[in-house]
Structure formats: C-alpha cells, structure tokens
Amino acid sequence: MRGHVLVTGGAGFIGSHVARELLARGYAVRAFDALQEQVHGGAERPEYLMEDVELAVGDIRDREAVARALDGIDIVVHFAARVGVGQSMYEIADYTSVNGYGTAVLLEAMMDRPIRKLLVASSMSVYGEGLYVAAEGPVEAVERSRAQLERGDWQPRGPGGEQLRPVATPETKRPALSSVYALSKYDQERMCLMFGSSYGVPTVALRFFNVYGPHQALSNPYTGVLAIFAGRLLNGRPPLIFEDGEQRRDFVNVDDVARACVLALDADGADGMVVNVGSGESVTVSEIANRLARVLGCEHIASGITGKYRVGDVRHCFADTSLAERTLGYRSTVSLEEGILRLAGWLEGQVAHDRVDNATAELAERGLTL
C-alpha cells in the first residue's frame, strides 16, 4: 500500500476520477463528500464511484466529521468546494463559508496528524483575464467596464487603450479576482500553501482550467460549460453562449487532470508551488459548442449567441503548461477531438434536466447579466 488518501469532494466529478487513478496506482482511498443536491441530485452514493473507494458523507465545515474522515490518513487531496462563477456572485456567504471556512477546518484538523502530502485544487479563475501581449510585449488587460460591455465591445485593451493579443497564461501572471468564486479559490490555495510551509507538509496547488469528461453533473447549470452545452443539446435546445462566442478557453480532459494529480503526489518537483493543469491549447466557446453538436448528431440545433455578458466572466484565458511539464512531467495526452468522442460515448442514455433558463433568469433578476 503506497498510502492512505483522503479526497475531500471525492464523490464529485474530478474527485471520483482522481480516486480511480489513485486506486490504480496502489493507494487506499477514502472520499469525503457532502453529496450536495445541486451536484448529485440526491444523497445516495454515486454509481460511478468505484466500489473500493470508502465513502464518508459529511460537510467540510463539520469539525467532528472532518476529524473522523482523517483517521488513518497520511495524504490529503482537497477538492471540496462550491463551484460556479455566476452563482458565487449571489450566494456569497455560502461560497465563502464552504470554500474558505471549510478549508480552515480541514487544515486545523490536519495539524496534529502525520500528513505527508497535501494537494489542493485551485482554478484558472484566479487569473481573471489571461495574459496578453501588445506591440511592446506582455500587457495586463484593463478590466472591461460596464459601458464597454453594454455597447458589445468585448475585447480587453491595455492601460493606454492598446490592442491586445491573448497568449498562454503562465503561473507568474498576477491574479485578478473577478468573482467571489475566484476569490475563494485563491483563498484555498494560499491557505494550503501557507499551512504546508508552516507545518512542514509538502503542498501543491493545481490550477485547473476547463475540465470536462464523463460523470460531470449534466443537470447543474453552474458546472463546466461542456456539460451545460451537452445538457441543452440532449434536450433539443441550443447551447446559450454569452458575448459573441469568440472568447477563448482551455478545455482539458478529466483523465489528464487525474493523472496530473497523481504525478503531483508521487513527485516532489512542484512542492510549495502553484501549477497550471490544462491542455495547453485554446478554442473558442462557439467552436466547442459546434464540435459537440456535430458529434452528438445535433448539427440542426444552432447555438444561441446571446450577445449578453455575465458579471465575473473574462474574455480569454488558456494555460501555459510548461511549468507542469518541468516539475511534474505532465503533458496533456487526450486531444480535444478524442475527449469529445469519449464524452459523447458516455452521454448516450444519459438524462439531463435542463435548468439553464432558470439559472440565467436568476442572474438577470439580480442584474448580473447585461
């Protein structure tokens, strides 16, 4: 046995894939999860969670439940979090409580235990806008104003009004926290890295980009964009795309993410560091919607370009993965084409309850869309 791992949020989309990878590498795995209704649709053990994974149900803010979950554990993978940019802007207390206070509870419970490695899931959302270059070199984009967005002028500009070109975002890019979710993920990664430094626990923070793959919650309107688009298409409805659909993202397959997590546990090259985990490629949101529609045989369902903007969204952000390659030996191995085919295979027979219209109406009611 290589070690006993606790995966908080381990019954979720990414956590369950990481648990599978850990089992394959000879680790014993315990998942700790609240089985939140919005994600899981009920309080039962997910059928996709491998039988060899021990499941402990509880809230990450419950000190006694967390202490019990840590019994016999020597490695912690911390994924427990509320996820979603839009929802975080009006469920502020809950996102702050689960992501911030929950992490603090976990770290306090770890203080007197023989934990030899800590891995925490962070997010590309902490960058805000990704890295851009102008004629003279790298430039930080100015936050797009409400007036700019209201007139449909989507492209960020430099401090002097410069035209900018998006490039891959490295870990050295200064965070620009544009949502409560982004702020809470930054809190998580900083708390864990400070804890690791203070208590001598090797710690790695992985900033995940747009993760997709089987077992993502299709009925959760605040999950990853590919799952949201899939849920719409399965119900014969067009994917709703904000702005003009030309914003660029980095879509990384969950199998690559799971492998990166195990590499970070097995190696020490990234200890004490923040590391991007992405594909290293970028694609527009419109293109990803169209690709998915073609694979699902839904070409007749045209994507719905809304021309609207959501508070907290950014224009372009995709990963520079060179640090992950140097420190972990990580490179993405699942192409976008192959990953979408795998996703489509899993989608056969899946049922999705499309709640996107309700979520969009909620944002509009609160003035969070323009």
What's the gist of this structure?
Helices cover 36% and strands 16% of the residues.
Fill in the keyword field for this structure.
13 helices, 7-stranded parallel β-sheet, 17 strands, 3-stranded antiparallel β-sheet, globular, 16% strand, 2 domains, Rossmann fold, 370 residues, alpha/beta
User: So what's the oligomer here?
Assistant: single chain
Shape: globular
Largest sheet: 7 strands, parallel
**Tally of structural domains:** 2
Mean pLDDT: 93
Task: Just give the CATH class of the largest domain.
Answer: Alpha Beta
Q: Low-confidence parts lasting 5 or more residues at pLDDT below 50? A: none
Radius of gyration: 20 Å
Spell out the blueprint of helices and strands.
Blueprint: E1 4-8, H1 13-24, E2 28-33, H2 37-40, E3 54-57, H3 63-69, E4 75-78, H4 85-88, H5 92-110, E5 117-123, E6 132-134, E7 137-139, H6 146-150, E8 165-166, H7 180-199, E9 203-208, E10 210-212, H8 225-234, E11 240-241, E12 248-249, E13 251-253, H9 254-266, E14 273-277, E15 283-284, H10 285-295, E16 304-305, E17 316-317, H11 322-328, H12 336-347, H13 356-365
Parallel strand pairs: 1-2, 1-4, 2-3, 4-5, 5-9, 9-14, 10-13, 11-16, 12-17
Antiparallel strand pairs: 6-7, 6-8, 12-15
Helix pairs in contact: 1-9, 5-7, 8-10
Q: What features would you describe in this structure?
A:
It is a single chain. By secondary structure, the protein is of the alpha/beta class. It has two domains: 4-131 and 167-365, 3-Layer(aba) Sandwich (Rossmann fold), CATH 3.40.50; 132-166, no CATH class. The chain is 36% helix and 16% strand. The chain is built from 13 helices and 17 strands. The strands form five sheets. The chain has a seven-stranded parallel beta sheet with strand order 3-2-1-4-5-9-14, sandwiched between helices. The chain is globular and about 55 Å long. The N and C termini lie far apart (54 Å).
